[in-house]
Amino acid sequence: MNFSLRHFLFPLLIILITSFAQAATRPNIVVILTDDQGWGDLSIHGNTNLNTPNIDTLATQGMELERFYVCPICSPTRAEFMTGRYNPRTGVRSASRGEERMDLDETTVFEDFKAAGYTTAAFGKWHNGMQPPYHPNARGIDEYYGFCSGHWGSYYSPMLEHNGKLVQGKGYITDDFTTRAMDFIEEKQDDPFFVYLPLCTPHSPMQVPEPWWNKFADNELPLRARPDQQENLQHSRAALAMVENIDWNVGRLMKKLDDLELTGNTIVIYLSDNGPNGYRWNGGMKGRKGSVEEGGVRSPFFIRWPGTIQSGSKTDTIAGSIDLRATLTDLCGIKTTGDLPMDGISLKPLLLQSEENWPERLYVNHFKGKTSVRSQRFRLDFQGALFDMLKDPGQRTDVSNKHPDVHKELLAAQKHFDKTVASELPTTKTDERPFVIGHKDFDFTQLPARDAEASGEIQRSNRAPNCSYFTNWVSTDDTITWNAEVLESGKYNVQVYYTCPEEDLGSVVELRFGDRAITREVNIANDPPIVGPKLDRSDRGSESFVKDFKPLDLGVFDLEKGQHTLTLSALEKPGNQVMEMRLLMFNRVN
Predict the structure, then answer these.
(1) What would the pLDDT profile of 394-404 be if each residue is shown by its tens digit?
(2) What is the pTM (predicted TM-score) of this model?
(3) Residue 447 belongs to what domain range?
(4) pLDDT band at residue 22 under the 50/70/90 scheme
(5) Residue 194: exposure state from Cβ atoms within 10 A (0-12, 13-18, ≥19)
(6) Which of 123, 121, 103 minimizes the C-alpha distance to 113?
């Protein structure tokens, strides 16, 4: 080998060896995000109504952030975690009908880690967009199994999706998601991975298997919600039983890391996406899910990294979901991708207890025109009242007059946020972005009833749209429509997921986009019962029950690029109804 070649190859070899060594020692990431679990729904926080030994152990093996804040509801928290930016900046303004979609100029933490050589996976509730390019597989997730809506109507072997393909779940949903995560970790154990486990419990429907329910079925729950909050005892029982099931699954997952000898090189985070989904014991805090008060936005937060983060350590320094992307990339030595600035900061100095002069900061919570501001000591509520959270954690006494300078500072921060951040959300009453079909990199698009509008006498199966379907389609004058845009022209096989009893067969339905249409006679009966009532532990209220919807091929649709109204109508209806309709599925024909 001549000198010049050695001069070139040896440094290259050193770089490659160093890169492989860094990849081998990079920590894995596991983020467990629960849904509608309050800060108080853990025995480590003093709740004697339940027992959560595995989550408690996880907390004591790492650091607890005692004042960690998220958003009042699901989708915004998820967007903040992924982007490191306050949710109004991301376009996420609510939880359904397209308002949960994260703007396409946003970059996610999964894209950061994927670019750095990690394999990424998510198992559970996505809730930041269903159609590509909003779909998880288009936002940096290599392996996805779960559902993209905000609410799912059944937790026992329901219809789910796996990388865009509709599949049948296996068993109780939280167990299923956890098992999938464990299998993935075992498969990818030799390479760095980022596993996101966004569980959908204790969100309704309040369904939980017997082994967990039996303890709570007749439990009087000694600890209750504060007197000015009306508690639904049956709902609380079900929620706590669901949390104990989560705890069991956390134990299974931690044991899998132990068995694979991955514990020492895996960062594990545990948090919730908002306050509790009902008034129950929550440390006396004011507010619940949907509220920007302390009880609506304070989340449990535990982070474990053995040998790096001190076991049993705690900090009461305020932090929140906007800080997670900067923190995880900093801990792992990974560069963030994308051009948009983050609002969050890296918590690495706090976690490693290496901070010297940690800066005072204000943390903002916002939802639907209501903005609350938290300092280390005070909270300004959305109505302008000031509370000393050290002396009055239940927010019962306004101390604005006692601390006028603090009140003035937080009011200014509230006004500034509303003017510069909250104002980034569109002012229209509904989300006017079209639902997209035909992304060039993906062969599938799902359009559920959730995202559609119905005319005439057609009714939604219940008020909350997320897991609903359309029923009472009794007139050929009535239609189901989507504001749709085809991104790339192409041929798609289209299926409608439906029910129709034998006696109502014979309707002819048409699916039209612009000047093109396909038709199909409904000639195969599917008349399943409603699923859910016998499995619910508490009334589900405005949320829909579900049925076993089956696919009916409508044929191949030659779609042309452009934006039109996608319309499903009936040309003929010989029976009492056309069908009940759950969703449309488009699959590209190669």
Answers:
(1) 999 999 999 99
(2) 0.95
(3) 435-588
(4) very low
(5) buried
(6) 121
